[in-house]
């Protein structure tokens, strides 16, 4: 990373002697104290992060293996997969291959509770002197203490192991506030850096802006490493340099954007000159013809922008995630008045939230223009946004800056700038809508069975037993029979509750996938609900490019309900897959996760117009419940169902009929609370709601009554399983799932 650690604890001191000039590691700037396996140890602080071991004259090599270790992670953000950079240097070239295992723990003051453990293996090859790796550590909460351990060929190197140290010594106060704005800047000038920090600070007055400046080669090549960021800044004129010279970094960045991220391009020109160049780059990645600039149109006219670029509306509806998602699509929008979205009557919690929101009118400045033409233009990229700013986010005066701040606050950019706004939840806070996507009939108290059993128990242990014992002349045996019968009845009820839910794991999923069949690019966002009678011994196993973020209920014991504290200790092991081995799923406990994946996909729905109708071949590898098709001639088709590899020819239908069938499927699969749950919890409070997440906003846009068509060459498929998401359990069938694929062909 270009910038190093910016703050250290009060325990730091200067080293007794400077680092040796010929050291391949950066010079030691200060020394901090930490706890090692054998007591307090000194840890060096340098440009490589934290370095072990330290001696009187600076960095040394470990006694058993003659290695030196540096660990660095000054990446901003609190929630997401934090990249931890690990570097090993041997005193001499390795005589043979050595297997290195690095284990990192971050969490609460007591690392045995509410912590995350991540570990991976890498090799120091024969003849080599250095080895490095980047370990992605999911961060779901504030970190106060951390530890790490290095094993060499299966044996711990105590000189390179820390049992406990202050997390601020590693992350430099850049990962302990979920309301802070985490951003990264690439190729920004000094004035652009200042403008970015100032603008984000004004937009979020109660938040701190953490801006990490990066060189292009320092950018992560794994999209998961961007998940803790809110915004990435790049000068519009430098995007081509980034894409041409650093294709791996550019691909990872754009995959993150497709998963709801925000790429902000500054200095796009007073007449949007750079936007045309940007769109030509993006069109090439999408396999489309490159657009030509419209130089005759004024800059304030949307026709001056390339296709797919728009000016954002600056009214109250712009803050609605559903309307923001609709603006970022290329759907055909009908110019008709739109009624308020009806609240699901089966979800009183959502109704209460909507009523409370209606009482709080947004602070709309009537003096502002109706759109963002003076400041910025937006374009959808998958589920995320690419924003082009005419200037450096700055105005020409302080008054202009304040006006720009109000513009951002009234546009679709506002709810997307914070992690919780995009996800509709945070990993360390309860969600008011957790219960609306449970597995039906699972995990509920067997009330009916209890009523029947207790009635039979009362009748049997009372009149019947008394009559039988009195007739037999053994009435004193009531003293033994009554407690024995009560014990057996209790055991029977308990056994029934366990067996009724089953001993295996059950899953319910809900997702949306955007699939570009021209390029194979896919972006999937899902919500999975789990219930296991007995938790799988090996936990969950998902692909290495799939992110998993917990959704907590607002009745979680983490927040003090029930008078107990949850020991939420999770472990992730990185091998060929992400092995979520411990703490991710518990027995007889409803558990939910966001699941996100961005990757290349070979799956597709093959569509070919014929004289007999539209020929559809299912190559999505999952059963399809229904497909809405919008062809290049403006015709609409509906097909249902379609098994994997099945071929069917369908006839055109009216758009209204197709839209009606789409709405029917959405209505039948609305998230709703189980019977008897009114959505209220004692001591709970209003927080983020999953119904406001980017995933739900996209689903609402697909089903919007404003949509007159999804665009030529697009289809909407409803499938029984997600095509690119893995729930992490083998041989498990999903129940009452709802998965939507929006594809282009």
Pairing-aware structural class of the strands and helices?
Answer: alpha+beta
Instruction: State the separation between the terminal residues, measured CA to CA.
Output: 40 Å
Mean pLDDT: 84
Strand order of the largest sheet: 21-25-28-23-22-37-36-31-32-34
Which term fits the overall shape?
Answer: globular
Tally of discrete structural domains: 3
Instruction: Report low-confidence residues grouped into runs of 5 or more.
Output: 1-11, 13-24, 337-346, 352-362, 559-566
The strand count comes to 37
Per DSSP, the total helix count is 14
* Helix residue percentage: 10-25%
Radius of gyration: 29 Å
Largest sheet: 10 strands, mixed
Give structural notes.
The protein has 3 domains: 30-171, Immunoglobulin-like (Sandwich); 181-315 and 364-417, Rossmann fold (3-Layer(aba) Sandwich); 428-745, no CATH class. The chain has 14 helices and 37 strands. Residues 1-11, 13-24, 337-346, 352-362 and 559-566 have low confidence and may be disordered. Helices cover 22% and strands 30% of the residues. It is globular, with a radius of gyration of 29 Å. The strands form 7 sheets. A 10-stranded mixed beta sheet has the order 21-25-28-23-22-37-36-31-32-34. Strands 8, 9, 11, 12, 13, 24, 26 and 27 form an 8-stranded mixed beta sheet that branches. The protein has a 6-stranded antiparallel beta sheet with strand order 1-2-3-6-7-10. With 745 residues, the protein is α+β, with helices and mostly antiparallel strands. The longest helix has 26 residues, at 447-472.
């Amino acid at each position: 990373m270009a910038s190093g650690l910016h703050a250290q604890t009060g325990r730091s001191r200067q080293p007794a002697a400077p680092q040796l000039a010929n050291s391949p590691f950066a010079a030691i700037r200060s020394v901090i104290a930490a706890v090692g396996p054998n007591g307090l140890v000194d840890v060096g602080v340098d440009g490589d992060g934290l370095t072990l071991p330290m001696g009187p004259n600076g960095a040394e090599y470990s006694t058993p293996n003659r290695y030196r270790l540096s660990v660095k992670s000054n990446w901003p953000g609190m929630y997401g997969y934090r990249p931890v950079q690990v570097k090993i240097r041997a005193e001499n070239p390795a005589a043979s291959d050595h297997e290195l295992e690095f284990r990192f723990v971050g969490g609460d003051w007591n690392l045995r509770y509410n912590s995350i453990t991540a570990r991976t293996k890498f090799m120091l090859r024969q003849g080599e002197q250095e080895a490095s790796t980047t370990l992605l550590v999911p961060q779901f909460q504030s970190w106060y203490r951390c530890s790490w351990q290095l094993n060499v060929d299966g044996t711990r190197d105590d000189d390179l192991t820390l049992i406990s140290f202050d997390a601020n010594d590693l992350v430099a106060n850049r990962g302990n506030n979920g309301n802070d704005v985490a951003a990264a800047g690439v190729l920004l000038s000094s004035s652009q850096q200042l403008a970015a920090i100032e603008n984000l600070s004004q937009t979020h007055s109660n938040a701190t802006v953490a801006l990490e400046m990066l060189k292009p080669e320092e950018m992560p090549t794994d999209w998961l490493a961007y998940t803790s960021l809110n915004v990435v800044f790049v000068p519009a004129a430098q995007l081509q340099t980034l894409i041409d010279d650093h294709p791996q970094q550019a691909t990872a960045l754009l995959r993150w954007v497709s998963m709801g991220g925000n790429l902000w391009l500054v200095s796009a020109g007073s007449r949007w000159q750079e936007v045309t160049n940007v769109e030509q780059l993006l069109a090439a990645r999408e396999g489309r013809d490159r657009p030509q600039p419209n130089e005759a149109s004024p800059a304030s006219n949307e026709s001056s922008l390339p296709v797919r670029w728009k000016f954002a509306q600056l009214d109250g509806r712009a803050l609605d995630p559903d309307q923001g998602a609709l603006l970022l699509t290329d759907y055909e929008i009908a110019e008709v008045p739109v009624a308020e979205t009806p609240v699901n009557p089966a979800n009183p919690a959502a109704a209460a939230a909507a009523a409370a929101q209606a009482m709080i009118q947004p602070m709309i400045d009537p003096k502002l223009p109706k759109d963002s033409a003076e400041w910025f233009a937006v374009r959808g990229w998958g589920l995320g946004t690419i924003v082009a700013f005419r200037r450096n986010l700055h105005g020409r005066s302080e008054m202009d800056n304040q006006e720009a701040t109000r513009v951002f606050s009234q546009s679709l950019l506002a709810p997307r700038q914070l992690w919780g706004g995009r996800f509709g939840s945070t990993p360390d806070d309860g969600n008011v809508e957790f219960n609306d996507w449970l597995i039906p009939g699972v995990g509920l108290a067997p009330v009916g069975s209890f009523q029947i059993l207790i009635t039979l128990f009362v009748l049997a242990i009372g009149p019947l037993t008394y009559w039988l014992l009195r007739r037999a002349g053994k009435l004193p045996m009531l003293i033994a029979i009554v407690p024995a019968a009560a014990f057996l009845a209790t055991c029977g009820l308990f056994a029934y509750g366990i067996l009724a839910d089953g001993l295996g794991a059950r899953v319910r999923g809900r997702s949306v996938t955007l699939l570009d069949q021209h390029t194979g690019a896919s972006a999937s966002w899902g919500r999975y609900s789990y219930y296991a009678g007995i938790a799988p011994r090996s936990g969950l196993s998902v692909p290495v490019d799939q992110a998993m973020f917990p959704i907590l209920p607002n009745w979680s014991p983490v927040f003090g309900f029930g008078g107990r504290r949850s020991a939420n200790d999770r472990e992730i092991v990185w091998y060929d897959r992400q092995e979520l081995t411990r703490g991710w799923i518990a027995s007889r406990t409803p558990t939910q996760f966001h699941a996100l994946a961005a990757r290349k996909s070979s799956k597709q729905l093959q569509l070919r117009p014929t004289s007999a109708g539209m020929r559809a071949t299912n190559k999505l590898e999952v059963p399809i419940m229904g497909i809405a098709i919008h062809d290049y001639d403006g015709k609409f088709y509906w097909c249902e169902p379609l098994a994997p590899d099945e071929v069917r020819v369908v006839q055109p239908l009216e758009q209204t009929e197709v839209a009606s069938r789409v709405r029917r499927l959405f209505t039948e699969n609305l998230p709703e609370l189980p019977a008897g749950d009114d959505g209220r919890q004692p001591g709970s409070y209003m927080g983020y709601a999953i119904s406001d997440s980017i995933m739900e906003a996209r689903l609402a846009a697909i089903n919007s009554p404003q949509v007159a068509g999804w665009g030529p060459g697009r289809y909407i498929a409803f499938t029984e399983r997600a095509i690119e998401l893995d729930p992490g359990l083998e041989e498990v069938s999903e129940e009452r799932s709802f998965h939507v694929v929006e594809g282009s062909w």
